[in-house]
Amino acid sequence: MVRILALESSCDETAAAVVEDGRRILSHVVASQAELHAQFGGVFPEVASRQHLRAFVPVVEQALKQAALRLAEVDAIAVTRGPGLPGSLLVGVNFAKGLALATGKPLLGVHHLEAHIYAAWLHFAGEQPRPEPAFPLVVLIVSGGHTELILMEGHLRYRRLGGTRDDAAGEAFDKVARLLGLGYPGGPAIQQAAAQGNPKAFAFPRARLAGSWDFSFSGLKTAVLREVRRLEQAGRPLPVADLAASFQAAVVDVLVEKALAAVQHFDARALLVTGGVSANTLLRTRMVQEAPVPVHIPPLALCTDNAAMVGAAAQRRLEAGFVDALDFDVMPTWALWELPRPEAVGSPNP
Ligand code: KG4
Ligand code: ZN
Predict the structure, then answer these.
(1) Residues 202 and 90 occupy one common structural domain
(2) Does residue 82 line the site of ligand 1, with CB under 6 A?
(3) What pLDDT score does 190 carry?
(4) 185 touches ligand 1 (CB under 6 Å)
(5) Atom 18 (ligand 1): residue with closest C-alpha?
(6) Could you tell me the distance, in angstroms and rounded to a whole number, from the CA of residue 263 to the centre of ligand 2?
C-alpha cells in the first residue's frame, strides 16, 4: 500500500490530498481563490502566490487529518511542478521540498496535464473503483490554459495529435463570460446562463480546420464580440442567455466532433475527457451519448484543479521508477510530450 501526500498550486486553487495506490482518495481539500480574483475578472498572479502562502499549511493539515494520517505515515510527497503560474508553482514546490526534506520521503514533481489525465483513474474512498480506461486511448484535455488532443498507447506514453492554435477552450469561456458581464470563472457562469437560452439563436462559427487535429477558438470569441457590439449599437438589450447557449453549443460541437473523429481514425478503445471544461454538462452528455467507445470523464470535483489527481499521476511515475532530486526548478511552460517515457529509467513497461 502506497500513500502519497500531493500538493497543487499551479493557478488559483490551493489543494492537498492523500491518495492510496494511485486510485483511492483518502482525503481531498481544495481552497479556491476564485472569489478573491473575481474583482479582477481573472487570476492576478501575485495575489495568487501570496494566497497560496497563507493557505498551504492549513490545507495540508486538513488533508492529513481527513485521511487520519500523520505526516510520517505517508510514503511519498508529490507536487505540481508545471505548467502554470511561476509564482504559484514556486510556493507549492518549495513547501513540498520542505516536507520531503523534513521527512526523508521521496519527492515527485508532477506535470499538471498528466495529473488531469490520471484524475480519470481516481475514486473516493467508500465508493467503487471506476472502470479503468483501455489503451489505445484518445485523450481530450480542455482547461483554462490548455486544449490538447492526445493519443495514449499505454501508461505515461503520449502522442500529441493537435491542440489549440490560439485560445484554450476554458479561456474562450472565461473571455466570453466577461464580455457578457457574467464574471469569473466563466465556464460555470456561461453554463448556467445557457440553460435558459436557445443554442440556435445565433449561428456562431465552428472552426473545423479540416485535415488537422488542431482547434481554434479566437474566431468564435471575435464573432460573439461583434454580435455584442452590434446589439449594443442598435440599443438592444443583450440576450445573454441566447448568446451564452449559442457560444457553448459552438465550442462543444467542435470538441465533440474532433474527439470522436480521433477515436475513429486511431481505432481507439476508449475516450478520456478531462480538465476544467470537462465539468461542462453539455460536453459530458454529448460525449457519452455520441462516442462509440466507453467515455471516461472524472467526477465533477476532480475535473477542475485538485491535488488528488497529482497523487494519482505521481503514483504512476513512482511505479515506473521516477523520483526527483530536491533541487528541481518549476516548469511554468512544459509540454506533456517532453516528459521522459517509462523506459528512460529502465523500468519494465507499466
Ligand atoms: O483545469 P482547470 O481548473 O484549470 C486549469 O488548469 O486551467 O480549468 C479551469 C477552466 C476555466 O477556464 C473555467 O472557466 C473552465 O475550466 N470551466 C468550465 C466549467 N467549469 C470550469 N467551462 C465550461 N463549463 C463548465 N461547467
Ligand atoms: Zn488544470
Answers:
(1) no
(2) no
(3) 98
(4) yes
(5) 187
(6) 23
Average pLDDT, the chain: 96
Last residue of a domain, one of 274, 293, 312: 293
Q: Is there a contact between 301 and 325 (Cβ–Cβ < 8 Å)?
A: no
Does residue 345 lie within any of the structural domains? no
Answering whether pTM is above 0.85, one says yes
Q: Rounded distance, CA 128 to CA 69, Å?
A: 22
42 and 144 both lie in a single domain: no
Residue-level pLDDT at 250: 98
Is 159 found in the same domain as 92?
A: no
What distance lies between CA 237 and its chain's CA centroid? 35
Tell me, in angstroms, the distance from the centre of ligand 2 to residue 238's CA: 31
Report residue 349's pLDDT band, with 50, 70 and 90 as the boundaries. very low
Ligand 2 (single-atom ion) residues, CB below 5 Å: 143, 305
What is the span of the domain harbouring residue 256?
A: 137-293
The answer, yes or no, to whether any atom of ligand 1 lies below 6 A from the CB of 187, is: yes
Looking at the fold, whether 120 and 23 belong to one and the same domain comes out as: yes
Query: Does residue 158 surpass a pLDDT of 70?
Result: yes
- Residue from 116, 143, 190, 281 to probe ligand 1 pocket by mutation (most atoms less than 8 Å from CB): 143
Percentage of the chain modeled with pLDDT above 70: 98
- Do 27 and 120 belong together in one domain? yes
Q: How many whole angstroms separate alpha carbon 142 and alpha carbon 150?
A: 11
The alpha carbon of residue 298 and the mean position of all alpha carbons in its chain are separated, in whole angstroms, by: 10
Q: Quick one: which H or E segment has residue 241?
A: helix 240-265
- With a 6 Å cutoff on the Cβ, whether 191 touches ligand 1 is yes
Per-residue confidence at 344, pLDDT binned at 50, 70, 90? low
Structurally, how many domains does the chain consist of?
2
Q: 332 and 314, same structural domain?
A: yes
pLDDT tens for each residue of 98-110: 999 999 999 999 9
User: Which three cell numbers, joined as nine digits, stand for 211?
Assistant: 485535415
Q: Does residue 208 fall inside a structural domain? A: yes
**Residue 347 included in any domain:** no
194: how many CB neighbours lie within 10 A of its CB?
24
Q: Measuring from atom 8 of ligand 1, which residue has the nearest CA? A: 276
